[in-house]
């Protein structure tokens, strides 16, 4: 466990030592702030119900898109940069196991993602101070967004482990995630049985329940399995180097 936290700390230091991290934080903050403001104004001006009712569904569906845009740019460097610079070989000479390297980098990316969410949480707190509301739906939406973002991170981590090109890593991650988004867009192209299967595999359809304040244990289990699956693929990707005679 100590070695995992050591790698996590090392990764966070490298992340926050780069200007790219602050650019991504700024972009996420600006986009999430814009969507929060515009959705709140829409609810106030166009809806006939109380300001907070229905707000979180709008806000977090927009944050879903912002997360999709930003997270692959966070994960693209996790392994690809080390491979390109040759520092991954140095890391492998340390007395750490592959799974510890994976978990350390994974936890660092998750921590960075949680930092990105802080400004939005502050906006929600400010709204609550002026207009108290039921925190249940908000907590549900945040849980769903965190599970969705961590799923993106696990996918991006795997892709980054397969290449030394950061641009390729980001683009392939985008491709995989957009595929999971579009699975159920053309409902007429599949029969009902196939559609039910596709709905079960769609990250974004499962996330939708959280934005409505509904926490279904099946959705939580799906996200956990999705994350575990891509972490397993990452471990397999690193293990494959031994087949090629790399220590």
Q: Mind explaining what this structure looks like?
A:
The chain is mostly helical and 247 residues long. It has one domain (2-241). The chain is built from 11 helices and no strands. The radius of gyration is 19 Å and the shape is globular. The two termini are 23 Å apart.
The CA-CA distance between the termini, in Å, is 23 Å
Quick one: how many beta strands? 0
Number of helices: 11
- Beta strand %: under 5%
Question: Order of SSEs, N→C?
Answer: HHHHHHHHHHH
Counting helices, strands and paired strands, the structural category is mainly alpha
The geometry reads as globular
> What's the pLDDT, averaged over the residues?
84
Number of domains: 1
- Which parts are unreliable, with pLDDT below 50 for 5 consecutive residues or more? none
Outline the biggest β-sheet: none
User: Mind telling me the C-alpha Rg?
Assistant: 19 Å
Brief sketch in words of this structure:
By secondary structure, the chain is mostly helical.
Helices and strands in order:
Blueprint: H1 2-16, H2 19-46, H3 55-75, H4 80-85, H5 87-92, H6 98-130, H7 135-160, H8 166-182, H9 192-201, H10 203-211, H11 217-243
Helix pairs in contact: 1-6, 2-3, 2-6, 3-7, 3-8, 3-10, 6-7, 6-11, 7-8, 7-10, 7-11
What attributes does this structure have?
247 residues, single chain, mainly alpha
């Amino acid at each position: 466990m100590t070695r995992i936290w050591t790698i996590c700390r090392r990764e966070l230091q490298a992340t926050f030592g780069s200007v790219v991290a602050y650019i991504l934080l700024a972009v996420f903050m600006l986009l999430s702030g814009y969507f929060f403001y515009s959705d709140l104004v829409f609810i106030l001006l166009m809806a006939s119900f109380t300001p907070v009712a229905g707000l979180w569904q709008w806000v977090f569906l927009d944050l879903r898109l912002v997360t999709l845009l930003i997270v692959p740019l966070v994960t693209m460097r996790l392994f690809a940069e080390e491979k390109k610079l040759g520092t991954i070989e140095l890391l492998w000479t340390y007395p750490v196991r592959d799974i510890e390297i994976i978990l350390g980098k994974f936890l660092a990316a998750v921590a960075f993602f949680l930092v990105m969410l802080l400004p939005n949480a502050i906006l929600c707190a400010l709204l609550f101070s002026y207009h108290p509301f039921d925190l249940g739906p908000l907590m549900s939406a945040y849980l769903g967004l965190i599970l969705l973002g961590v799923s993106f991170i696990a996918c991006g981590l795997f892709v980054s482990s397969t290449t030394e090109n950061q641009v390729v890593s980001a683009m392939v991650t985008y491709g995989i995630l957009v595929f999971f988004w579009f699975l159920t867009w053309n409902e007429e192209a599949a029969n009902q049985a196939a559609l039910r299967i596709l709905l079960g595999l769609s990250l974004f359809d499962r996330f939708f329940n959280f934005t409505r304040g509904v926490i279904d244990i099946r959705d939580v289990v799906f996200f956990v399995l999705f994350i575990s699956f891509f972490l397993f693929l990452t471990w397999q990707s690193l293990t494959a180097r031994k087949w090629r005679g790399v220590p």
